[in-house]
Design a protein that fits this description.
The protein is α/β, with parallel strands linked by helices. The chain is about 30% helix and about 25% strand. Strand 16, helix 11 (about 310-320) and strand 17 (about 325-330) form a beta-alpha-beta unit. It is globular and about 70 Å long. The chain starts with 14 loop residues before the first helix and ends in a 13-residue tail after the last helix. The structure holds 5'-O-[(S)-ethoxy(hydroxy)phosphoryl]adenosine. 5'-O-[(S)-ethoxy(hydroxy)phosphoryl]adenosine binds near residues 263, 496 and 498.
Length: about 625
């Protein structure tokens, strides 16, 4: 990044990687973006298609309700598909997919456009109009991409609920979003078993009203309940005469909502983060192109799930906007054997692999031989996201997977940011465990309790000081919470909820969350949701959940439970409570361990002091406990 010698352990990119990179001189790009941020984003936006250009790049007249590309007209789905269908990319593969059983599907831009148009017509025939919400509860199959793009095409707002969530999590999200239509699969394959998504959805729908139609994609083929008049098979709908491949596209205002995505916050219910067509499109396109250095012949594999922001931005929208080929794999990384991923990289000639530290640590456990059996020479760039990557995992990833020739892009960002915020580019010197510096044009800082910048080497709160195109616009239906949650601690600064420090070279090092959000296997969960799932069990009076360090998962959930009077403690009850959380919220939220206790440490105002529980579990000093009630 600069001519100066960098401190600590540094990995310099190879000549070959730099030679090919879109951005060979990061400093120059950063200077350009810092000089004139509006011009920087405007130039990037010019690379995409607009039915009508903007009046202003950024409108900050009502802070923090920033607007981007005001009065411009576009549609992200048009830029993902229609634009390419008009070019030589028409017959290029947009999506390569492998099922867990080994089945395979490949779709050209032409085919993905056709299927999307057909399904968009189906949605319209079910009464879906611009602005309506559609909940999508599916696993990793091509139809999830088609469903998302079809929503975008007709101007509906998709709300994807991760397929690893369960009854109550789905119910809550359907109800809050007031969705009209639900798109689901009969079941999803996971580690050789079937996750009965339709059955879970049926149970959630018994608790939630509002859904008029359920579209069911047949994947696993077992018998499912189909409610007459409400439930319809996807393949049958796609064969109706209304499902033609011509479908008028809704011209969207740049600021029209594209999707909501629920994520966990500090307190209470998950919040619906809202993203728009225009700014989100420019942000995901630019960041993916520069950070993963996407070229036309690249096969890009983001191994996340489409149900999380990483999948939205970098399996679906980003790769299609850049005209790359996106790869999607349905199942578990070690199924049937720990070489599954490596075998697919070899067979499909994947050039870029983007995954999470937890997956790397999980696969690392099986040893180098599983990787070394495969020719991974197609790989050029690697990536990491979701939590800080420990240097040991970084080095293994670099040495064994990347054969010491693939730079690792450690990308820091959030559901709220929509796009990478701190990330290197392939021509930038790397330090294991650091995402290097903020993306050009993004002003980030680390501040103390009062909002003053801390000195290098000191820990503080990570904040963002300038608006960025893919930023969340609000929390759906709750603008007050948007202001309160993100912009109220330090006016004018966006609070990320993370703590971090900067080193003497200006490299950022993320430490972790400072709130009650847990990162478990890279998944973002709120302690409040886990606790409310526990308390919804008849035997439980009160509960507290914390995260404790775990070798593979990063954090594992530990829960403390006060039973109702008269309920007997037993190990069977512990198991039952774990199962209950799994059933209500999803397997990812199941506590690793549950302890029965008589009381919980609380402040005088009754808030559970989770940090005291954590310190105690780790045998550490709980620090300042002056606000502790007892
Ligand atoms: C954490 C995921 C360290 C961070 C895209 C953030 C990271 C939260 C990194 C957002 C990284 C994400 N290094 N920590 N490279 N990337 N995080 O909304 O705590 O699921 O606030 O978005 O993940 O999680 P979310």
């Amino acid at each position: 990044m600069s001519g100066k010698k960098l401190s600590g352990e540094v990995f310099y990119p190879s000549e070959e990687v730099i030679e090919r990179a879109h951005i060979k001189d990061w400093e120059k790009l950063n200077a350009e973006a810092s000089d004139d941020n509006e011009k920087f984003w405007e130039d990037r936006a010019e690379e995409l298609h607009w039915f009508q250009k903007w009046d202003k790049v950024i409108d900050d007249s009502i802070k923090p309700f920033y607007k981007w590309f005001t009065n411009a007209k576009t549609n992200i789905a048009y830029n993902c598909l229609d634009v390419h269908v008009e070019t030589y990319r028409r017959n290029k593969l947009a999506l390569i997919w492998e099922g867990e059983k080994g089945d395979f599907q490949a779709m050209s831009y032409y085919a993905l456009h056709r299927e999307t148009c057909k399904f968009a017509n189906v949605l319209r025939s079910l009464g879906v109009e611009k602005g309506d919400r559609v909940t999508i509860y599916m696993g990793r199959i091509p139809e999830i991409m088609i469903a998302m793009l079809a929503c975008a095409r007709v101007g509906a707002i998709h709300s994807v609920v991760y397929g690893g969530f369960s009854v109550e999590a789905l119910h809550e999200r359907i109800e809050d979003s007031e969705s009209k239509v639900l798109i689901v699969q009969d079941g999803a394959y996971q580690r050789g078993k079937i996750v009965p998504l339709k059955e879970i959805a049926d149970e959630a729908l018994k608790r939630a009203g509002g859904i008029e139609h359920v579209v069911v994609v047949k994947r696993t083929g077992q018998d499912v309940n189909m409610e007459f008049g409400r439930d319809m098979w996807y393949h049958e709908l796609m064969n109706l005469p209304i499902a033609t491949k011509e479908c008028t596209l809704e011209k969207m205002d740049a600021e029209d909502p594209l999707f909501i995505l629920y994520t966990s916050g500090t307190t209470g219910k998950p919040k619906a983060i809202l993203h728009t067509h225009g700014g989100y499109m420019v942000g995901t396109y630019t960041t993916l192109k520069y950070v993963f250095d996407i070229h036309d012949d690249d096969r890009f594999w983001c191994a996340a799930d489409p149900g999380w922001i990483t999948g939205h931005s970098y399996i679906v929208y980003g790769p299609l906007l850049t005209g790359a080929t996106s790869f999607m794999y349905e199942g578990a990384p070690n199924y049937p054997y720990p070489n599954r991923w490596w075998s697919m990289i070899e067979r499909y000639g994947i050039n870029i692999l983007y995954t999470a530290p937890t997956a790397i640590r999980g696969l690392m456990r099986f040893g180098d031989a599983w990787v070394k059996r495969h020719d991974l020479s197609s790989l050029r760039i690697l990536g990491s996201v979701g939590e800080p990557i420990n240097p040991e995992a970084w080095k293994w990833y670099n040495r064994v997977v990347g054969n010491e020739k693939c730079p690792i892009m450690d990308t820091w960002w959030q559901t709220e940011t929509g796009m990478f915020m701190i990330a290197p580019m392939p021509s930038v010197p790397l330090k294991p465990g650091s995402g290097t510096k903020p993306f050009p044009g993004i002003d980030m800082d680390i501040v103390d309790e009062e909002g003053n910048s801390v000195k290098s080497g000191e820990e503080g709160f990570l904040v963002i000081k300038t608006p960025w195109p893919a930023m969340l616009r609000t929390i759906y239906k709750d603008p007050d919470r948007y202001v309160e949650q993100y912009w109220s601690k330090y006016p004018g600064m966006y609070m990320t909820g993370d703590s971090a420090k900067k080193d003497e070279d200006g490299y950022f090092w993320i430490i972790g969350r400072v709130d009650d959000v847990l990162k478990v296997s890279g998944y973002r969960l709120g302690t409040a949701e886990i606790e409310s799932a526990l308390v919804s069990h008849d035997a439980v009076a009160e509960a507290a959940a914390i995260g404790l360090p775990h070798d593979v998962k990063g954090n594992a959930i530990h829960a403390y439970v006060i039973l109702r009077a008269g309920v007997q403690q037993s190990s069977e009850l512990k198991e039952e409570l774990k199962k209950h959380v799994g059933h209500e919220m999803g397997p990812i939220a199941k506590p690793e361990n549950i302890d029965f206790v008589d009381s919980l440490p609380k402040t005088r105002s009754g808030k559970i002091m989770r940090r005291v529980l954590k310190a105690k579990a780790l045998g550490q000093d709980p620090g300042n406990i002056s606000t502790l009630d007892e």
